[in-house]
Design goal:
The chain is an alpha/beta fold. It has helices spanning about 5-35, 45-50, 55-60, 90-100, 115-120, 125-140, 160-170, 190-200, 205-215, 230-240, 255-270, 280-285, 285-300, 305-315, 320-330, 345-350, 355-365, 455-465, 480-485, 490-500, 560-565, 590-595; strands at about 70-75, 105-110, 150-155, 175-180, 375, 375-380, 385-390, 395-400, 425-430, 430-435, 445-455, 475, 505-510, 525-530, 545-550, 555-560. Strand 3 (about 150-155), helix 7 and strand 4 form a beta-alpha-beta unit.
């Protein structure tokens, strides 16, 4: 089936808008690819350094231009659950590469920080900018010019977007992304949230809270809720960077290892030395990017991707905007209920049919582009599958089921959970923001209430403890944008605002900061642009101003006259406490150079 005309029109608009930058990008990619195997340009001394630790036979192979060399970029560390499984991957990849007649080398490592560890801590102010640093670190590894293809080992929040930016920067090389999978199901996410709420209300102590958290995050793999990490995996698969079915297979299983070996062999098969040359920069186009946005809406994915997808697209010369994302949300139905948009975790989602089922449903009515290139070949239909372990430890695939194994988790395209997607853009006299509405009850899509103003999340939490947050209100938490303090996630607000909402108060949040992939039931206008540090209208809101947030019409306004708003002096905040400690001083150039949230909040794109 051909793609829905509304999606085709948005895609065509992106193509037209992107023509100058995309044509320049493709010109550079094709020039780089035309130079052939890049080791051929290296001098003898260069090559000697590049294969000094290789075996004699590998040195002979790498000194010529006929044996493909696979560059591995890894985010392995053994502290973080999502990345610890990558410890064994290089050896597995080298073995699989040798079986396929190639060679593999770890080209470099990239940092991987965990937002779960840094929530509410100074280190969170490094989090968003770590994405651009990851792209730079991957670029350093690949700058040795020794490789015919690449595999990227990454999972979590900023890691995959950073690796994607690197893959597009080195777009003349094929790129396959290899995930590690989610941890097995522990304490249910809704029970974890209940315990957090009890702790915030002072009804239980730290020991009980830590016990619940430890039972939730208990082993190797990603967290099981549908936040940015698992949204990353969905996006990479639906954009064609994973092997079909690879995203949500648990670590340390025979199928997980089989998929890693298969991905290695495929990465070698699509080099310029073979018949299926698939440079990453040519493979990804406007249709691929639109498919990523569609997947995000259909699953109620992470709000962080309203910035990440914009930055990832721009790295390929594609000019995606919040308006494009919002208009696609009006078209794409919500087909998945995964925590925090439902009670299921990603393991339940996968068991219900997973991405393969989801893609199959979207293809039925032309709700996604099928005619795309992927690392697996041509066409997205190949991803509408169920993956299993086959004979002799290989990967076997069969058509995804037509019927959901759990209708409470995955719906059909003709009877979706809601007719529109989970993310929407808001505009008005306060600027632009985004809101995740897939978990917000319809009766809370419109909030009109007086403003209570805070300049950090700790101040709001203190006001809650002191009993000062009474009645209906809109919390304005400003000076949290990328230029102010690196745009930390304000996830610590989720529990407090949720408690007040459960008490019957009408509450909402407006911030130029982030609320993460775990954004839930409280209406939250986030990523407000222009940010307060730039003197944006959010800096002119005064205590008690009436604010109207309307997620149905996509509007957000402070109810004062334009003349009065223009005449007000912007508020100022003392940000000196955010400039030093936990490495924040090292990121001062990032804060000074970053672009706006609507452009990806990146030092690369403005």
């Amino acid at each position: 089936m051909t793609v829905d005309p509304r999606i085709a029109a948005i895609t065509a608009r992106i193509v037209e808008r992107s023509k100058p930058s995309r044509e320049l990008y493709l010109h550079r990619v094709r020039n780089a690819a035309a130079k052939g195997v890049h080791r051929s340009v290296l001098g003898c001394g260069n090559l000697a350094h590049g294969f000094a630790v290789c075996s004699p036979s590998e040195k002979v192979a790498l000194s010529g231009d006929t044996v493909p060399n696979l560059g591995i970029i890894t985010s392995y560390n053994d502290m973080l659950s999502a990345h610890q499984p990558f410890e064994t991957y290089p050896a597995m990849i080298r073995e699989a590469a040798a079986q396929a007649g190639g060679i593999a080398q770890v080209a470099g490592g990239v940092p991987a920080m965990c937002d779960g560890v840094t929530q509410g801590q100074p280190g969170m102010e490094l989090s968003l900018f770590s994405r651009d640093l990851i792209a730079m670190a991957a670029g350093i590894g690949l700058s040795h010019n020794m490789f015919d293809s690449t595999v990227y080992l990454g999972v979590c929040d900023k890691i995959v977007p950073g690796l994607m930016i690197a893959a597009m920067t080195f777009g003349h090389l094929p790129a396959v992304f290899i995930p590690a999978g989610p941890m097995t199901t522990g304490l249910p996410n809704d029970e974890k949230a209940r315990v957090r709420q009890l702790y915030a209300e002072g009804k239980i102590g730290r020991d009980e809270l830590l016990d619940a958290e430890s039972k939730s995050y208990h082993g190797p793999g990603t967290c099981t809720f549908y936040g940015t990490a698992n949204s990353n995996q969905m996006v990479m698969e639906i954009m064609g960077f994973h092997m079909p079915g690879a995203s949500f297979i648990n670590p340390g299983t025979p199928l997980r290892d089989a998929l890693t070996r298969e991905a290695t062999k495929r990465a070698l098969a699509i080099t310029a030395l073979g018949n299926e040359f698939t440079p990453a920069g040519e493979m990804i186009d406007e249709r691929s990017i639109v498919n990523g946005v569609i997947g995000l809406h259909a699953t109620g994915g992470s709000t962080n991707h309203t910035m990440h997808l914009v930055a990832m697209a721009r790295a390929a010369g594609i000019m995606l905007t919040w308006q494009d994302i919002s208009e696609l949300s009006d078209i794409i139905p919500l087909l998945a209920r995964v925590y925090p948009n439902g009670l299921a975790d990603v393991n339940h989602f996968h068991a219900a049919g997973g991405i393969g089922y989801l893609i199959g449903q979207l293809l039925k009515t032309g709700m996604i582009h099928e005619d795309v290139r992927t690392v697996f070949g041509h066409g997205l239909q190949a991803y509408a599958i169920d993956v299993k372990l086959g004979e002799n430890g290989t990967v076997a695939r069969e058509r995804a089921p037509d019927v959901s194994h759990d209708p409470k988790v995955l719906a059909t395209i003709d009877k979706p959970f809601q007719t529109t997607g989970g993310l929407k853009m808001l505009t008005g006299n306060l600027g632009k923001a985004v809101i995740k509405i897939s978990a917000v009850k319809p009766e809370r899509h419109i909030i009109e209430a007086p403003a209570k103003i805070f300049h950090d999340q700790a101040s709001l939490n203190d006001a809650f403890k002191e009993g000062k947050l009474e009645g209906n209100f809109v919390a304005v938490v400003r000076f949290q944008g990328p230029k102010a303090n690196g745009m930390p996630e304000l996830h610590k607000l989720t529990t407090v605002l949720g408690i007040l909402q459960d008490r019957g108060q009408m509450v909402a949040l407006i911030t130029d900061g982030r609320m993460s992939g775990a954004s839930g039931k409280v209406p939250s206008a986030i990523h407000m642009t222009p940010e307060a540090k730039d003197g944006g209208p959010i800096s002119k809101i005064r205590e008690g101003d009436i604010i109207r947030l309307d997620a149905t019409t996509g509007e957000i306004n402070v109810l004062v006259s334009d003349a009065e708003l223009d005449a007000r002096e912007p508020a100022e905040a003392d940000l000196s406490g955010n400039e030093f400690g936990m490495g924040r001083e090292l990121f001062a150039p990032f804060r000074a150079m970053t672009g706006a949230a609507e452009h990806g909040a990146s030092v690369f794109f403005h």
